[in-house]
């Protein structure tokens, strides 16, 4: 496994691999890897000649007052984990090389996909996500890029961008990986105190309850959202950011649950903002 | 020479050419080709295995009330000209295939490069330009893309975008091609009545005078702009949109003329908006 820091060195390396006819699978991450990331690397390993993992805490997707500076980092541990899973290349650029002086270009995905959910709570977040992924895709030139469904809205944004801008990359979405007790894996779980860690179970528990309600035939979205909200409100350290039920592709609000449906929520537990979701196919 | 209309067919064709190790030179145009375009195709022909010309009147770079509907079109003549100059592929997509239902993604170059000149007169214009070129570059995957210096601000925008988004393409700027009497070639010259055609010479004449003033040692930008403006004001059918002297790369306003300097103007002659410019290297 090799580690590359400079964007132009990464581009050159990729070019020489493509000239050899190698297929590239790409796992973009912000590092501090957990089992969710591991599942993406494993999936990429099975489908491509070369697996490239990027580790870059992208400043443009953080808003003012968000956790850019405190976001957990541990590059040595990340390297060991990538090596263990059989990655071939780690691309770990510096901010100053990704956004040098005079940097001016941004990619926006507009409309329903970015209007609600995290797009509403975190203005500019998806602009930063789309921009950095456009850059990374141009550098890494992957056949396939792997994303966790935990960031379901991010997956919808990147799919839309790739299709709209005629990018030659397949976007692969992989299931959420959970702790044994149901908590969705996240680098931000490390922020939680032991008490908050317990309280945070209300996210997945609410979603599993919603799933049961829908499976048992309930189709009224506002009814199910109310149920979820009242469950979360019962937990003292938990503060709801949003609870939404939307079309899983367009992210448009649903009143009646039908089709490919995303039930998504964001909850602040103490000072830590956590997200979780489920996707259901409903007739 | 082959003609391709569908973006996915173009992508497939390009992929097979790249697998054969061919280099691609790309000339993006809005059609109604003139000798300016011909010079780009010739230059591309000399530097690449394959020359691809796109012909697409891009709706997203036209503002409300602009000449999208009346923009001159003659695809048969364009095809004959491309063939004559040795182009290999014409890519002539339909709007509905470039911007299908649900299209949502735009590329913005912010800051001084797009703030003034045509960016100020035509809000959204460069957003449309950057977006369509991002799409076209992804479809055509060129090693080199050729642009006329007549659209000097466009060249600065696309250079900035390509560098910022790590696109693997060299942006080649080619000199303005003029009619014998000095008028810069433009598809829009066809709008001019015979009287307006005479009046339109004030654009190039003003620029040549400005060049002489600068060459003779004058360095005060506002003085030279005043001289240009008073010349244009003497022509009854001419209405100044802007006259600017800026840094040729950053497009930042200059008070003192020094470095790589762009003297650029936009003038409405009758109903036709024309642009022209000169770039000078000044010690």
From TrEMBL, chains A, B:
(R)-pantoate binds at residues 61, 154. InterPro entries: Cyt_trans-like, Pantoate_ligase, Pantoate_ligase_C, Rossmann-like_a/b/a_fold. Its EC number is 6.3.2.1. GO terms for molecular function: ATP binding; pantoate-beta-alanine ligase activity. ATP binds at residues 30-37, 148-151, 177, 185-188. Keywords: ATP-binding, Cytoplasm, Ligase, Nucleotide-binding, Pantothenate biosynthesis. Beta-alanine binds at residue 61. NCBIfam families: cyt_tran_rel, panC. Belongs to the pantothenate synthetase family. Catalyzes the condensation of pantoate with beta-alanine in an ATP-dependent reaction via a pantoyl-adenylate intermediate. This is Pantothenate synthetase. It comes from Peptoclostridium litorale DSM 5388. The gene is panC.
